[in-house]
């Protein structure tokens, strides 16, 4: 990093560079002490932006703790994109977890890189969760994992519409164990979304179709155990991989509407079509146009009809091109 | 300068460019590898760096540049493949092995590498080195982080500030 003896004449590259290198925040007044002696830890000389990237890769509490390591690091956690992961590693106690999420969202000014709310118990907390999702700290959210813990399957578990305010920036949302606000689907656009995961979500067939048409650069789609979609028709110029299962991670749907038919109408880039739990269907898979399809996962009793172009297989137990079975 | 002209349009596979480090060492490398750097890509697309000219990199010394280029050369084929959707699991495992080995280096080298990746805007390298440092920090107390990163012992004021932070951010220390 020494400017030194560079014999090379300055170019536009150099100019831009050195501007950026000096981009760090000036030390707070009266704390110059470290910089003059050569003994300063080297890492603290990196620009704020670089240190911020490092901090936003850390788990939430680790990130917050970096504020204590020195004056140089003090302001960085608050000025780096927030990475908020509230799962059972965060703390095992539900009530504490709720309090921490509220706390962190109140002290961090945003923006956010990632939010993971996993196994959150809804109970009487809809207003609180909605409030979290509206908070300024989460502005610009790129990655989101949202999953309730289902304590009583008879009760509704609505996904707050505020979770969808991040549509313009989301890259890889994973939504599970909730009821999707169907009425919002037609108005949503996800210009950055490449990977979509829906697991044990209750939503209408129409809502899913609208949602998918709003994902203009979607490459990977994972659908497991969703309720309300009997027949899914996929047309996408960008999609490369679809993983699907009529059954969920944890339980079979005892009631409700499971996926019975998957139709790939037109997917010119589709390479992988993977039934993740083939014993449970869907009963019919039809591929009308997918010229790049290379891998079709393991099939089984649960899938009774497979149609590729005009070729129809009535299946007992047949596997085609066994290469990749995993999600 | 360097208003992106249409240039030569196709950057031929085996086209070579020369990069010149701050201590005046010249490195000849395939344009495709050097183009992993967003910063260099423009200049290269513009036809720069060929022949006797070379692109001076006054902020990167030769030791660091050779390390950076080692990374670029290894990753160039996969990058040319559009994020390597067709890469086999073996290719991917090999790159991962290379990456792990690659950042197994002294901290001073690591920081020079971070700066170079940042200045040259080499996305994959930027996240690789950032992740390495994050791994060094993860799961540690502020005092342990200071030791890991080679900070001097805290002055009494710094110690007092650390304690104050631990009180204020009690939730981060459970």
From TrEMBL, chain A:
Region (Disordered) location: 1-37
Location of the F-box domain: 43-83
InterPro entries: F-box-like_dom_sf (IPR036047), F-box_AtFBL13-like (IPR053781), F-box_dom (IPR001810), F-box_dom-containing (IPR055302), LRR_dom_sf (IPR032675), LRR_FXL15/At3g58940/PEG3-like (IPR055411)
Pfam families on file: F-box (PF00646), LRR_At5g56370 (PF24758)
Domain F-box/LRR-repeat protein 15/At3g58940/PEG3-like LRR: 129-315
SUPFAM superfamilies per UniProt: F-box domain, RNI-like
Taxonomy, superkingdom: Eukaryota
Name of the protein this chain belongs to: F-box domain-containing protein
Native source species: Eleusine coracana subsp. coracana
Gene: ga25435
Automatic annotation (TrEMBL), chain B:
Family assignment from sequence similarity: Belongs to the SKP1 family.
GO BP terms in the entry: jasmonic acid mediated signaling pathway; protein ubiquitination; ubiquitin-dependent protein catabolic process
Pfam families: Skp1, Skp1_POZ
Gene3D superfamilies associated with the record: Potassium Channel Kv1.1, Chain A
Domain SKP1 component dimerisation, chain residue ranges per copy: 124-163
Protein name: SKP1-like protein
Transmembrane segments: none
Subunit structure: Part of a SCF (SKP1-cullin-F-box) protein ligase complex.
Lineage of producing organism: Eukaryota, Viridiplantae, Streptophyta, Embryophyta, Tracheophyta
Function according to Swiss-Prot or TrEMBL: Involved in ubiquitination and subsequent proteasomal degradation of target proteins. Together with CUL1, RBX1 and a F-box protein, it forms a SCF E3 ubiquitin ligase complex. The functional specificity of this complex depends on the type of F-box protein. In the SCF complex, it serves as an adapter that links the F-box protein to CUL1.
Pathway(s) annotated for this protein in UniProt: Protein modification; protein ubiquitination
Domain SKP1 component POZ: 16-75
Matches recorded under PANTHER family: SKP1 (PTHR11165)
UniProt keyword list: Ubl conjugation pathway
């Amino acid at each position: 990093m020494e400017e030194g003896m560079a014999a090379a004449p300055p170019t536009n590259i150099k100019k831009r560079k050195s501007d950026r290198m000096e981009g760090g925040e000036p030390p707070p007044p009266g704390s110059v002490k470290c910089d003059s002696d050569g003994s300063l830890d080297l890492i603290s000389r990196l620009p704020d932006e670089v240190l911020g990237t490092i901090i936003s890769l850390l788990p939430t509490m680790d990130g917050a703790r970096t504020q204590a390591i020195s004056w140089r690091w003090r302001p960085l956690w608050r000025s780096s994109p927030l990475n908020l992961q509230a799962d059972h590693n965060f703390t095992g106690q539900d009530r504490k977890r709720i309090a921490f999420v509220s706390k962190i969202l109140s002290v961090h000014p945003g923006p956010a890189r990632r939010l993971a709310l996993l196994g959150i118990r809804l109970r009487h907390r809809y207003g609180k969760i909605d409030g979290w999702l509206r908070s300024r700290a989460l502005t610009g959210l790129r990655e989101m994992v949202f999953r309730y813990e289902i304590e009583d399957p008879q009760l509704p578990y609505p996904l707050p519409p505020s979770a969808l305010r991040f549509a313009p920036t989301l890259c890889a949302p994973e939504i599970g164990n909730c009821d999707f606000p169907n009425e919002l689907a037609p108005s949503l656009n996800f210009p950055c979304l490449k990977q979509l995961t829906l697991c044990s979500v209750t939503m209408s067939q129409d809502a899913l179709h609208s949602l998918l048409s709003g994902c203009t650069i979607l490459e990977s789609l994972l659908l497991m155990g969703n309720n309300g979609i009997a027949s899914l028709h996929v047309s996408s110029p960008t999609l490369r991989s679809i993983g699907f299962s009529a059954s969920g991670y944890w339980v079979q749907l005892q009631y409700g509407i499971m996926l019975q038919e998957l139709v790939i109408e037109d997917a010119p880039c589709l390479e992988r079509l993977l039934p993740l739990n083939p014993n449970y269907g869907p009963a019919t898979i039809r591929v009308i146009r997918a010229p790049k399809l290379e891998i079709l996962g393991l099939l089984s009793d649960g899938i009774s009809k497979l149609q590729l172009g005009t070729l129809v297989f009535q299946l007992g137990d047949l596997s085609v091109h066994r290469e990749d079975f995993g999600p | 300068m360097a208003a992106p002209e249409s240039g030569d349009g196709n950057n031929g596979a085996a086209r070579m460019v020369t990069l010149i480090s701050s201590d005046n060492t010249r490195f000849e490398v395939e344009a495709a590898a050097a183009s992993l750097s967003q910063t260099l890509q423009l200049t290269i697309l513009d036809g720069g760096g060929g022949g006797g000219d070379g692109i001076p990199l006054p902020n990167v010394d030769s030791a660091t540049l050779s390390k950076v280029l080692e990374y670029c050369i290894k990753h160039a084929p996969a990058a040319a493949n559009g994020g390597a959707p067709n890469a086999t699991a073996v290719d991917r495992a090999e790159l991962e092995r290379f990456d792990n080995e690659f950042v197994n280096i002294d901290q001073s080298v690591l920081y020079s590498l971070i700066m170079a990746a940042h200045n040259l805007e080499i996305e994959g390298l930027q996240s690789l080195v950032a992740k390495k440092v994050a791994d060094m920090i993860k799961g540690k107390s502020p005092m342990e982080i200071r030791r890991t990163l080679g900070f001097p012992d805290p002055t009494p004021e710094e110690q007092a500030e650390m304690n104050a932070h631990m009180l204020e951010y009690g939730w981060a220390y459970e």
